[in-house]
Design a protein that fits this description.
alpha/beta; Immunoglobulin-like; eight-stranded parallel β-barrel; six-stranded antiparallel sheet
Length: about 575
């Protein structure tokens, strides 16, 4: 008996999307283990005569989690307007599913079938090609470098306009980044993502004072121009941080509001002002909306057309004048959505390959429909890896289920551009979550580099940086005395990722999820990469679940066995 309540298909969503103007992917979710067969029947919804001629396509059981199976088929359609239905069988029962109706019979009118009204090129669910192949190195500018393989490591203050002071905690600079681009390129990364670099008061620079210039305690605008030029010459893309949800309470517009109150021409630039607007004393609650209750960062009213126009010029300025390759967008889920739509149109009008990566910690589906972001920071990826690799709080079956749900949350082309990460400037270092166990970290890094999405590594992970609290996980790059030098390991992962298109574009299939052993496979045409990960403290037998040919990259592996926290990767094996 087919459990009808468990069957899910949503037209024009992650269950039905275009990969190109001729290619469609159709998915259906059902109760685990129930279906013997699932067939998609599709036809031309604009066919001139009746009845419509339908073509059958066998759907693959492409993924499984604890409660559900996912059936999928990707095909080239001769039609730009498509109608379709499903044929479901469980060995005893045969049902047709069309427009959310289950029936033993097909409808008589074409309007009753599921519809893909028109495959519009503007709605193709994908991202710029370079992002799918990006291997990203994330730099926190204050903490990285002030010279070649060196950082000052001490706080400083720089005078700015109107007596304001700009703070630095560890002394990193733009020139310091430029002088170490060869280090990043040598590891094999092809993109750098910089946390904020615009003029700001605090060392983290999320309290922006001037959106059109590099913070003077980081360097000059020309320093940044040289950084981008040098990066591009080494094959490195440059993504910068845009903080448009809020600004500094000394930003010119907010300063005007404080001075002039309700008569300020900028009073509508901010959210929920109460007049008079007063900068509160330390610990006092502000009388205006701000970022995370931080009075020094008042919240901008991004639905205001003047605010929008101002920041569209900011967007255009850094792409047009400095040729940055994209933006990571701070607190993206609190900003007006029309602001982001306009931002994307502005960026793409100058550079068709410019990318937008939103900081959205939860499900970002409503921002990833093609009209706003290309990608989101994938914190769910980190959480699932934390629970499986670092803490051992879930087993391989639970891990597999969470990863499957994550991968089927978005269309394939969007998944391939997600910014997958284990560490960032906002979370404890993954190595610390692993209790300092470098083998556990390595397992997670192998998974990061071999799953769909753009792998993103936070500076210093390759040198064993740890830390649970903010000053520690944003600590100075340990150029002279790395706690644990893992550069060769990261170099091998970057090389593997960049040489194997299958890891960027291939299908993802779970092979085995048993206790703490997880094996999965990436497939693209005849190319296959199989990965085995033992997240447990016992040696495990691989049996016949994986190939026995020597792997390209391994730790704690011998034919047929994986030691505790060991991994193995096989390339170009037959399924």
């Amino acid at each position: 008996m087919i459990t009808q309540q468990a069957v899910t298909h949503i037209p024009l969503s992650q269950y039905a999307f275009a990969n190109s103007e001729r290619s469609l992917t159709i998915r259906l979710r059902c109760a685990a283990g129930e279906l013997d067969r699932c067939v998609l029947w599709y036809g031309n919804r604009a066919q001139q005569d009746d009845p419509i001629q339908f073509t059958p396509l066998e759907m693959e059981r492409a993924a499984h989690e604890m409660d559900f199976d996912y059936y999928e088929v990707t095909f080239d359609s001769p039609y730009t307007r498509v109608c379709y239905y499903f044929q479901l069988t469980d060995g005893c029962e045969l049902l047709y599913l069309y427009a959310d109706i289950f029936s033993a019979h097909l409808p008589s009118e074409r309007s009753e079938f599921y519809q893909y009204p028109f495959i519009r090129r503007e709605e193709v669910a994908t991202v710029p090609a370079w992002l799918k192949r990006a291997v990203v190195y994330n730099i926190f500018p204050d903490s990285f470098a002030s010279g070649r393989r060196a950082i000052q490591g001490a706080p400083s203050e720089t005078a700015w306009k109107n007596g304001l002071i700009l703070k630095s905690r560890l002394g990193g600079t733009i020139r310091g980044i430029t002088e170490n681009l060869d280090y990043i390129a040598d590891l094999g990364f092809n993109c750098i993502y910089l946390n904020p670099i615009f003029t700001a008061g605090e060392y983290h620079r999320y309290d922006t004072l001037d959106y059109f210039h590099i913070s003077p305690n980081l360097g000059t605008d020309e320093d940044f121009r040289e950084l981008v030029e040098q990066a591009h010459s080494l094959g490195l893309r440059v993504v910068i941080d845009g903080v448009f949800n809020h600004c500094s309470w000394r930003f010119f517009a907010f300063d005007d509001v404080v001075r002039n109150g309700a008569t300020s021409r900028y009073k509508d630039w901010f959210y929920d002002l109460t007049f008079p607007v007063v900068r509160p004393l330390e610990g006092a609650a502000p009388s205006y909306a701000c970022f995370a209750y931080e009075p020094k960062m008042p919240k901008l009213n991004t639905s205001n057309h003047e605010v929008r126009d101002y920041f569209m010029e900011v967007c255009a300025h850094w792409i047009r004048e400095y040729h940055v390759d994209g933006w990571r967008l701070d607190v993206a889920n609190e900003v007006d959505r029309e602001f982001w739509r306009t931002f994307k149109r502005t960026a793409r009008s100058i550079d068709q390959d410019s990318v937008m990566i939103g900081e959205v910690w939860e499900n970002a589906e409503s921002w990833l429909r093609g009209d706003m972001f290309d990608s989101a920071m994938n914190y769910d990826f980190r959480r699932y890896c934390r629970d499986f690799f670092a803490l051992g709080a879930i087993d391989a079956a639970q891990f597999s289920a969470r990863i499957t749900q994550m991968l089927y949350r978005y269309p394939t082309g969007i998944v391939q551009g997600q910014l997958d990460l284990l560490d960032s400037h906002d979370v404890s270092r993954f190595l610390s979550l692993c209790g300092g166990n470098i083998r556990r970290l390595r397992l997670a890094e192998v998974f990061l580099f071999t799953t769909p999405g753009a792998p993103c590594v936070f500076y210093g992970d390759e040198l064993g940086v740890s830390g649970v609290m903010e000053p520690d996980y944003r600590s100075a790059m340990p150029w002279d005395a790395p706690p644990d030098d893992q550069r060769d390991f990261f170099r091998s992962l970057c090389a593997l990722r960049r040489e194997a298109d299958v890891l960027a574009l291939g299908n993802y299939r779970t092979v085995l999820a048993r206790r703490q052993l997880y094996i999965f496979r990436r497939e693209l045409d005849s190319r296959i990469v199989t990965v085995a990960l033992n997240a447990g403290d016992q040696t495990v037998d691989l049996d016949s679940a994986a190939p026995i040919t020597p792997p390209a990259l391994a730790q704690g592996w011998e034919p047929g066995r994986l030691e505790p926290y060991g991994y193995a990767i096989w390339k170009d094996m037959t399924a």
